[in-house]
Records
---
Amino acid sequence: MAENSVFLEARRLTRVYRRGSEEIRALDGVSLTIRHGEFVSFTGPSGSGKTTLINLLGCLDNPSTGEMDLGGKVIYGSGNDLKEKALTRIRREVFGYIFQNFYLIPTLTVRENVALPLAFYKKPGAEGEVDRLLEMLGMGHRMNHLPGQISGGEMQRVAIARALVNRPSILLADEPTGNLDTKRSAEIGEILQDLNRNEGLTIVMVTHNSALAGLGGRKIEMRDGQAYEC
Ligand SMILES: Nc1ncnc2c1ncn2[C@@H]1O[C@H](COP(=O)(O)OP(=O)(O)OP(=O)(O)O)[C@@H](O)[C@H]1O
């Protein structure tokens, strides 16, 4: 896919949560475009809607109203929302996800954790990606360890390898360094920057870490459910 072509376009996304009789407008009309090869960071105060937005962009949740296209295909909107089966396919084939809490399976080795997505869906050549990615991320010597035997920074490297094993077009990272100290955070930041620059991976990241937010060049601040380009 040509670098700089439009990858994702969101128009007037809203997301309202209901808690009893209370209505929380977590997203209040967000429109944005993400191009292939971009590295976009979302910052903003707690409760401003960052996770809600990244979940919508990553097809993990549906908006209350609004439209979104991905690769020219309608995901939500105009009464043509994709059905769950098609969304599941997009989640597997298009996206890689990493989270603050890593979500590794404690009883599986590092290598088995990274290979896990291949049990559900395997892109051609993906088998060879397990070892390549672990080597690339400096985890080649830890392949047979369990998650409990490695550090937090190493766990996030494993989670990144797992997210990338099926060669996604876009990596979504929600607070990827939220559980890491400054040094480990900077290391994960460098890895993400290399993946973006050297492998052309599109990255969308939510972070409270201002050093990390500057890495990708494009920064969007969330305030009260709205998005502002910085
Ligand atoms: N499942 C839910 N049910 C009800 N309200 C929710 C739900 N998820 C989020 N909210 C509310 O929506 C608003 C936006 O939440 P969101 O998690 O998107 O913010 P955030 O910017 O990611 O916050 P943080 O930086 O603390 O993670 C908040 O007021 C939050 O309490």
---
Amino acid sequence: MSGEGNEPQAIRKLQPGKLVIASHNAGKVREIAALLEGRGLDVISAGDLDLPEPEETGTTFVMNAELKARAAADLSGLPALADDSGLCVDALGGDPGIFSARWGGENKDFNHAMGLVEDKLAAQPDAPRDAHFVCALALAWPDGHVEWFEGRVDGTLVWPPRGTKGHGYDPVFLPIGYDITFGEMDEPAKNEISHRGDAFRQMVAAVF
Ligand SMILES: O=c1nc[nH]c2c1ncn2[C@H]1C[C@H](O)[C@@H](COP(=O)(O)OP(=O)(O)OP(=O)(O)O)O1
Ligand SMILES: [Mg+2]
């Protein structure tokens, strides 16, 4: 008999049709839509559907991505893709991490958030400025099935912030091997190396 639990579960394929992008962050929605282009998907954002922004009560990126994807799939009756991501700074023990959006405060002010990181690092002038971005993607179906993927990009932090092209903490993040920040990089170039691009390539290989 099959299904005894020892064989790996097959990954569920995503069929052409409607897909909800379960994010209220315009910068992320823009990048995700570009990464999904040309795959026969009719992409709708959580904002288009007026879906509420769920409280992110998880303790990991994957837990929060799953919570957001499930909420959107349940409410819309459609497959939903969520992204939970953040900046992890080595010298700050991985902060802001899953709290990256919350460090922007009620106004989602990332100049403020980048300033907080700078202030906390100022207390450790000799510590390395190593940091990485993480992106967890969760793809949830209305019947409760979920697939997860996690991507990462390593870099160092620089001040003052540079560039106006990205979003969030992009202006202070210098990816390894580059001399421009994510804030100075065109979106296709960022997607080639970013945490989000990394997670997407894994997802695309698995579900298409
Ligand atoms: O490529 C990125 N470049 C710069 N900053 C980034 C990036 N990716 C994540 N980040 C930072 C800012 C963002 O606000 C937070 C994610 O927090 P996170 O909860 O996943 O997203 P969010 O609250 O902004 O939108 P939503 O939860 O509706 O998808 O990490
Ligand atoms: Mg969020």
---
Amino acid sequence: MIKTQNLTKEYNGKPAVNNLNLQIGKGEVFGFLGPNGAGKSTTILMIAGMIEPTSGTCTIDGVNVALDPLKGKEILGYLPEDVGFYANLTGYENLDYLGKFYPINDREREDRIETLLKSVRLNGVTQKVGEYSRGMNQRLGLALALLNDPKVVILDEPTANLDPEGVLRYREIVNELREAGKTILICSHILSEVKAVCTTLGIISQGKLVAKGSVKEVEDELIRQSNTHQKIVIKSINPELYTKIESIKNPDILEIARTKDGVEISVEKDIRPGLAEELKGTCSGITEMYLDRPGLEDLFLNVYRREG
Ligand SMILES: Nc1ncnc2c1ncn2[C@@H]1O[C@H](COP(=O)(O)OP(=O)(O)OP(=O)(O)O)[C@@H](O)[C@H]1O
């Protein structure tokens, strides 16, 4: 649904986005993460047709939005980080005015505004937008992004100004959109938020995609890149455990070390199911077995530090 091919943007001869190849399928909720200056906003702006790539292409549902802005208005909803509204109009009036630029009729627009204002909990609010809090402004921005019932929604830092209640409602809305088959790209620094709603993640660093996939796949890839290993920790009262494990031939076992109450096995990947099977019956006395590996937060910090 979203596709970039060798997408590159240079500023003053320096690449902000460097040969980015990204494919986001229908129904995916894709979390786009990366340190400050990594190239997230530049990528999003190119996908949304707001800035021109230096080279490469990007399309939404096969449409180059920059070349066909009218079609873009039909298929794309975009919530920028700082969304601007007319301060002297109410939320309803803003959506009504801005909605006239979308290819939907008056009746449909009015119905959708009512539904969306309810959805973001701004129905019945008569204040002018100039008097809105930042969170209210962001919720109105989300309503505007969904006004044309887009196939693809791009959200830039959508929870930055929301209170916990607002965050919960936002998560519900994203889940409703996913269930309706929409494709969503979320740019965020809030890892917990991304993990809560995204089906896939992409990590960008210095304009290049360094990992992509499910949370587990991204963790695996970042572990591989960071040269740290995951360990299987086994606690046991059986003194023969070490010898038994040493006798197991498995290329994913990198190193075995004795600990005071068992062993630790450095592994290429999680081999616990096979290991448990091998040890079953031949090595009693195991009291605990778990995988010790860095979490996404730590791995993500490594990427930040690498860039710094
Ligand atoms: N208009 C511009 N002119 C010159 N350089 C720019 C411009 N916009 C972005 N850049 C540079 O391009 C790089 C990528 O910036 P971008 O805003 O895409 O990063 P980002 O990942 O969105 O960062 P953040 O998390 O801080 O929003 C940075 O080095 C930035 O300084």
